């Protein structure tokens, strides 16, 4: 069942225009970068809580 779901999503991604639209990919990666930077402290706290990392390696 899981394999079928993965295959379905893969086919949907591969056949969509976004799979070959370089402009879309650039915009998406830019938005992802901005979101990660904007939520850096929240993500750091989640990593520390999830894996028990100390604060220093997450800087």
Give the count of helical stretches. 3
Order of helices and strands: HHH
The poorly predicted ranges are: none
β content, as a range? under 5%
SS class: mainly alpha
Globular, elongated, flat, extended or rod-shaped: what is the shape? Answer: flat
How helical, in percent, are the residues? Answer: over 70%
Sequence-ordered SSE layout with sheet pairings:
Blueprint: H1 2-15, H2 22-38, H3 40-51
Describe this structure in words.
The model has no long low-confidence stretch (mean pLDDT 86). The chain has a domain at 22-59. It has 3 helices and no strands. The protein has helices at 2-15, 22-38, 40-51. The chain is an all-alpha fold. The termini are far apart. The chain is flat.
Key features of this structure:
3 helices, 59 residues, flat, mainly alpha, single chain
Q: How would you summarize what this structure contains?
A:
The protein has 59 residues and is mostly helical. 73% of the residues lie in helices and 0% in strands. It has a domain at 22-59.
């Amino acid at each position: 069942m899981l394999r079928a779901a993965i295959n379905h999503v893969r086919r949907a991604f591969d056949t969509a225009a976004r799979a070959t639209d370089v402009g879309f990919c650039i915009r998406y990666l830019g938005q992802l970068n901005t979101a990660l930077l904007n939520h850096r402290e929240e993500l750091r706290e989640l990593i520390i809580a999830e894996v028990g990392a100390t604060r220093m390696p997450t800087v």
